[in-house]
């Protein structure tokens, strides 16, 4: 059936393009090679599909989906090039077609490489869950691979474009003739794009040293938020009220900022209460312990209440507590502040701040 289909296709091409009559046998060979390659691909894809279904492997499924289309195109293209190599490009006098197929092959290899990089990133990151509470290692790996993925894709595209241009003899000769003036042009371009280059280099530095990571909690420009996205040239900070702050990567290299989750996600929260001098500190300390033990926000590590300052009118009491991450610590601070104020209002209303006037 396949042979009959190929014969009909060859006959159809011969009728529409009379000048191909001399090359019927060559085209027939090429079509046979293409058909064999497609059948082989379909068999291999079917086997991989069955293995994927049997093993329920998400990684194998993602790998097959990412590489399915570029693999098919690459196999067909290679079979066409092999067919023309067998029959001979010189015999058919199709040097322009040979050049075109070479360019398409380079682009297809680049496309396959980019898809392979994306699939490799998914396979590696599938072992790390960034949604966990203690996700420091996962955020570190996510940050590195997201930046390195962009770097590798940029390099692949740049190399592909260079190789394609080098296949043209005229462009190669022009490049050689312009090489003498490349120094001056490089200086001009470097001066014009120094900020862009600095941002790219800062992106490399962030990927290696990691002063920030994906999902880090930072305070920048007096704004509190999470690191949502890191690229080679800019960083997106998600502000607590759902705004987005776009910051160049050079900012995190040149300016100081607060990173609340640099070492770990857990954090200490503080609550300040101002009371009269008669306030029972020991009772407040016991109440703080009771409040924390009955709260789901507390991680059970730190519970401290101290008098940290005294003025002519009030004393300053600081409650220190710990939580697993900064959003939880915020909720815990609000909860403790409300409960301590409520405790003073009900049990010791006379200990609330007051102004004394002696007549």
Structure description:
The protein is an alpha+beta fold and 359 residues long. The protein folds into three domains: 127 residues, no CATH class; 131 residues, SH3 type barrels (Roll), CATH 2.30.30.60; 84 residues, Alpha-Beta Plaits, CATH 3.30.70. A five-stranded antiparallel sheet has the order 4-3-2-1-5. It has a three-stranded antiparallel sheet with strand order 6-8-7, covered by helices on one side. A hairpin with a 4-residue loop joins strand 7 and strand 8.
Characterize this entry briefly.
The protein is 61% helix and 14% strand. It has 359 residues and is an alpha+beta fold. It folds into 3 domains: 1-127, no CATH class; 135-265, Roll (SH3 type barrels), CATH 2.30.30; 267-350, Alpha-Beta Plaits.
Can you lay out the helices and strands and say which pair or pack?
Elements: H1 2-16, H2 24-55, H3 58-87, H4 89-92, H5 95-125, H6 136-166, H7 169-178, H8 182-192, H9 194-209, E1 217-220, E2 223-230, E3 234-239, E4 244-248, H10 251-254, E5 258-259, E6 267-275, H11 281-293, E7 303-310, E8 315-323, H12 326-347
Antiparallel strand pairs: 1-2, 1-5, 2-3, 3-4, 6-8, 7-8
Helix pairs in contact: 1-2, 2-3, 3-5, 5-6, 6-9, 11-12
Please provide the ordered H/E string of secondary-structure elements.
Answer: HHHHHHHHHEEEEHEEHEEH
Low-confidence stretches: 1-7, 15-22, 178-182
- Total of DSSP H or I helical runs spanning 4+ residues: 12
SS class: alpha+beta
Task: Please state the average pLDDT score.
Answer: 76
Q: What characteristic shape results from the CA principal axes? A: elongated
- Side by side, the strands of the main sheet go 4-3-2-1-5
Radius of gyration: 34 Å
Largest sheet: 5 strands, antiparallel
Span between N and C termini? 115 Å
Helix amount, in percent? 55-70%
Under the CATH scheme, which class of the largest domain? Answer: Mainly Beta
> How much of the polypeptide forms β-strand, as a percent range?
5-15%
Number of strands: 8
CATH topology of the largest domain: SH3 type barrels
Based on the coordinates given, report the CATH architecture of the largest domain: Roll
